[in-house]
Give the backbone structure.
Amino acid sequence: MRDHGYSSEFRTIKHQHLFVVDDESGFMLADNLSGMGFYYQDTRFLSRLEIFINGRPPLALLSSTESSNMSTIVYANTRVEAEIQQQKIITIPQETVMVQR
């Protein structure tokens, strides 16, 4: 993993004329020069896909590409501290919120 939490390994998921190139965490980084994206008939329609929880990338707990045309990724939050109405600071412990896609 790189310092900002993203993987430097790439994977390709393909189904007929559709394919996705992303990293092991399922992200397509905004500053990527590696051709990451969502393609249809060799035309890139999406070049960036990043998820943030309270401004931070989530932790990838599971990344599975069981077949060449399907992927499951499970994320969890890092520790979150947020101020509510300028009065109370709440803390959400790490790995409390999970997101699956």
Observations:
- Residues 4 and 57 are 8 Å apart (CA to CA).
